[in-house]
Sequence to fold (207 residues):
Amino acid sequence: DLSYTDEILSLSLETTITTATISGTTQKSAMGLEVGVLYSLDPSFDNENTLKKNILELGTQNQFSIILSSLEIDSRYYYCLYTISDGVSKFGDIKSFTTKPINDIKISVECTPAEAVIDVISDFVEKDSELKYGVLYSSDSNPNIENSVKREINTSRTTWELTDLYWGTDYYCRAYYYYKGDYIYGNISSFTLSTPDMSSYLDLSSD
Fold:
């Protein structure tokens, strides 16, 4: 849902996991117009829980873009746009948007007796620098940041070669996400390095 005032001609709103971007254009005669947004998790817009973000002056093309960052993941926010012109404030209707849930990073593992190769695909690009994510693995069936080896990811696709593993041991891996001091974990996958066939290396002949 979009929140308009009389001075706003067009409006769009895009959300990611932790951000919302509100863009639009204003009336041609609106040079110097102040545009901003009030937003909150509380639909009552309690002053203590309401945040404000604005741009003080529009560009020459009467276009604006406001990025709300550090939002809660998969959460519904209430917002309204406002404009100030010649000291007169106007407010749009209170509308809402919902940040996106985390789509788990895609992890696949291929094993040989010598190594395991973890292929990681991330299908989202996040604008919020507070969000860090990666993959970790452990011989513990509940891998977490405390008992695992981890690797942070900053590209859409990463290949991780693991060569310090033991034959016949079950390993467990999953994605992790670090945001605002908390870790969030994805689904667990397991893999095992098979024991190599040593018969070709043994001399079983007898005198």
